[in-house]
Amino acid sequence: EVQLLESGGGLVQPGGSLRLSCAASGFDFSSYAMSWVRQAPGKGLEWVSGISGSGGSTYYVDSVKGRFTISRDESKNTLFLQMNSLRVEDTAVYYCGKDAIATRFQAPQQFDSWGQGTLVTVSP
Amino acid sequence: EVVLTQSPGSLSLSPGERATLSCRASQGINIFLTWYQHRPGQAPRLLMYGASTRATGIPDRFSGSGSGTDFTLTISRLEPEDFAVYYCQQYDSSPITFGPGTRLEIK
Description:
The complex is a heterodimer of chains A (124) and B (107).
Chain A lengths: L2 E5 L2 E3 L5 E8 L8 E6 L5 E7 L6 E3 L7 E6 L4 E6 L8 E8 L11 E4 L3 E5 L2
Parallel strand pairs in A: 2-11
Antiparallel strand pairs in A: 1-3, 3-8, 4-5, 4-9, 5-6, 7-8, 9-10, 9-11
Chain B lengths: L3 E4 L2 E4 L5 E7 L7 E6 L6 E5 L3 E2 L7 E6 L2 E6 L9 E6 L6 E2 L3 E5 L1
Parallel strand pairs in B: 2-11
Antiparallel strand pairs in B: 1-3, 3-8, 4-5, 4-9, 5-6, 7-8, 9-10, 9-11
């Protein structure tokens, strides 16, 4: 059974940093692109960042480029999101998502498994 | 960036009725469209990918259609567990984008 467990969320001041983790199990982690998707309070879903199965390609929405860094550790089956220079508008529940199709070198596409999310609150 | 527009924003129907949800893309995205169901407090659930292919375990009362810029998700006979928010998402080009969602409510 595929399981994704996010951690690392919390309360941080504007300008601060957080590192989110997503521990994966139940599938061949290195064969699947992974992504982070967030949902601000009362808002819809927003894709934030993705990484290919190989880890060689990364992708970001414009609003987080230069501030967030996605990475993965195959030895630990874990996905990360390093978030720096946080802004109030980054407040959201952050979900990690596993791609539905096993391709090591392709960009993220659609997500067939999601974690339960971790809440990030950026507030003075 | 591909902008997705969903209509209606909310829909009130009764169990057993048919629901038709629309998603329109700001430019052609072939069939690279996905639908998700999102219940409060739960993780989103993949319903449909490639515009019309049901994901594993999705009942056949859910169907998808469309290509290019106009897409439809149809739920033929609503069950109580179907009342949720539905999002479309495109993966034709980066960045991946989601529509704003359609809230399906019990009448």
